[in-house]
Amino acid sequence: KLYEPESQLARNFLVIAPNIIVLDRIYKDFQGLRIFFEDPVVPDNGVDGCNWRDDFQLTLHRQDEVRITRSTGNIFLTNIHRVYAGDDIPASPDDEDTMDYFLGKRPSGATTDSKVDLGMIVRDIDELVVLNDEAHHIHDPRMAWFKSIEDIHNRLKQKGSALSLQVDVTATPKHNNG
Question: Which of 7, 12, 136, 160 could form a disulfide with 170 if both were Cys (CB 3.0 to 4.6 A apart)?
Answer without folding.
Answer: 136
